[in-house]
Amino acid sequence: MDVNIKKLIPFVSNYKKHIYLNVFFNIFYALFSTLLMVSMIPTLNVLFGIDEKIYTAPKYEGIGNIKNYTGDFLNYKMTTLTDVYGFKIMLLFVISIIIVTALLKNISNYFASYHVTRLRTGVLRDLRKKLYLKIINLPVSYYSEKRKGDVMARMLGDINDVQNSFFQVLELVVREPLTIIFSIVTMFIISPKLSLFVLVFIPVAGIIISRIGKNLKSKSIKAQNENGIFISILDETLGGLKVVKGYNAEESFIDKFNSSINRLLHLSNSIGNKNNLASPMSEFLGIVTIAVLLWFGAQLVVEDQSITSATFITYIALAYTILTPAKAVSKASYQVKSGLAAAERVFTLMDQENPIVDKPNAVDKETFTTSIRLENINFRYKKENVLDNFTLEIPKGKTIALVGQSGSGKSTIANLLTRFYDVNEGKITMDGLDIKDIKLKSLRGLMGLVTQDSILFNDTIKANIALGKPDATDEEVIEALKIANAYEFVKDLPEGIHSNVGDSGNKLSGGQKQRLSIARAVLKNPPIMILDEATSALDTESEKFVQVALENMMQNRTSIVIAHRLSTIQKANSIIVMQKGKIVEQGTHEELIALNGTYNKLVMMQSFE
Asked: Which residues form a coiled coil (predicted)?
């Protein structure tokens, strides 16, 4: 059994009831499909005037004599009905057998489909829940290496492929093979000679069809990977539309997009061609079989007279009914290969190890009392150290500013304190306790984060601000907005705090978005605040509003300020000047100016990048 099918079993096992009922009704569907064909025999016999009249009810003599008993019983019933009620009532009786059988077949079909639908949609929901849980819990580092579009393609397209292929197969592995088996058993009862030929045809057809489908799985994986690239290009285009237009880069993006969808076209055509060949190939092989059956069967009817013409017509109809399920099975074998490729991509993401998880004995920490200490930290994203034997103590209630040129390791410290990444060597402690021994939810609950990019979601102002405190009242939200110097523009909006901010907050200016981000941190009210270049993207006027908001927020809190502009950090208790992952200077603004070193040069340049 394929490893990905094994991984799917736990999801399917939650819906055992629906599987059993689907199988139950499919058995009856297959049985009534065969009986529907067989029920034509008495009608044809009546029309051709073949049946002999039987006036005595036959005796049942065991399963070995079932064929003769069934025929004699029907003849006895028809003889009785004809003698008592006349030919029309007897004809109505044999036709009603067909109608009732067809009704029972279609009722079985409905209930089988009902239960497989419950199974498919339930498993689809569970797969999406599990995958989203994995996506949201994987560390930030995972997404710095992967395309967002590829992750989205797995969630949207691949899971649908898994659902469509595997659960269609569940339908087919019961219904269609049973239809074939019941038909062949009935055909053997009617004529063993003719049926032996059919048994030879089925494996030959299977071998021919499987040969056509070679390499389908690998091509499906390539197509699904390309689908991820195409979604990524679309996502990047929409996210950076102003830049694309501003630099007249439309042609470049159109070329990139067209190249991707052209590759997808070729792969899809190749997969589609093989899929499309399965059905006509199986039908052609079936027609060849029926043609040979007609040649053999005609001799049995005319020369041997071992079967009647009505029985032979029914036999041919049964042989033809095998074609539809055979076509479905052959087509399903292709879809399984496509489904296996999709399942491989889904479960590759689902099985991704998350290195940043709680230890089994991790503790809850609800207060911050003394200090945060980074001890002999070495950290690297790839090969070279970004932080090199870095040591720093951040006392409670103090504002510590980190300054330095781009690439000096400032933002990395914010990533390590929040455990978006883990240190390679050394340790970070809070009140003497290694942060790896603190539960992640508890650790991040003690921290508020304001980043350079004001991340807002397509929801109301209140919903965005109450992210860290979902039960916050309107009054608490308004108070946080006032501290963040944001209420002055929010109160003028038509719906106030219930106004929608648009996709990524695009209905607001940069300064307004940043002040809402600060309000979000204020409402959470954590003892430790991390400001990662919170004003670097703002114009001077917006910066003034935000600066006041930051100063309001940092009162009586421990603050780590990663600085871009002088105004943000000159009131800090201690300024740490960094260069290539090391501390080169440390002190207050006045002390560092007096040193006339690296910090003074940065001040003169007014550039903390």
From this structure: none
- Expressed as residue numbers, the domain containing 585 is 397-414+446-605
Whether 363 is covered by a domain: the verdict is no
* pLDDT for residue 213 is more than 60: no
Distance CA 212, CA 281 (A): 10
Q: What's the pLDDT tens digit per position in 535-585?
A: 655 556 666 666 776 677 677 788 888 875 666 677 788 999 888 888 898
Q: How far is the C-alpha of 362 from the C-alpha of 436, rounded, in Å?
A: 8
Q: Provide the CB-side half-sphere exposure for 393 (13 A, CA).
A: 6
Collapsing DSSP to helix, strand or coil, 532 comes out as strand
Contact 451, 443 (CB under 8 A): no
Per-residue pLDDT reduced to its tens digit, 59-102: 766 665 665 666 666 666 767 767 777 767 777 877 788 889 88
Query: Both 308 and 404 in a single domain?
Result: no
Q: Quick one: DSSP state of residue 405?
A: S
- Strands of 528-532's sheet in order across: 447-450, 528-532, 558-562, 399-404, 574-579, 582-587
DSSP 360: T
Distance CA 18, CA 170 (A): 11
Domain check: are 346 and 410 in the same one?
Answer: no
How many domains does the chain fold into? 2
Checking if the pLDDT of 355 tops 60, the result is: yes
Task: List b or e across 100-112, with b for residues whose CB sees 16 or more CB atoms inside 10 angstroms.
Answer: ebeebbeebbebb
Please tell me the distance from the alpha carbon of residue 555 to that of residue 560, in angstroms, as a whole number.
13
Q: Is 581 left (phi over 0), alpha (psi -120 to 50) or beta?
A: left
CATH number at residue 456: 3.40.50.300
CB 454 within 8 A of CB 510: yes
* Distance, CA of 475 to CA of 493 (rounded, Å): 17
Quote the CA–CA distance of 289 and 327 in Å, as a whole number.
Answer: 14
Nearest partner of 468 among 415, 421, 529, 537, judged by Cα? 529
Tokens 């029914």 found at: 314
Report the distance separating Cα 535 and Cα 544, nearest Å: 9
Closest-CA residue to 396 (of 162, 208, 558, 524) = 558
Are residues 336 and 407 located together in one domain of the fold?
no
Residue 341 pLDDT > 90: no
As given in the structure block, the two tokens for residue 273 are: 């061609």
Give the three-state DSSP class for 199: helix
What are the CA-CA distances from residue 207 to residues 37, 280, 293, 454 (Å)? 28, 15, 21, 60
User: Tell me: the pLDDT tens digits for 463-503?
Assistant: 888 888 888 888 988 888 888 878 888 888 888 888 888 87
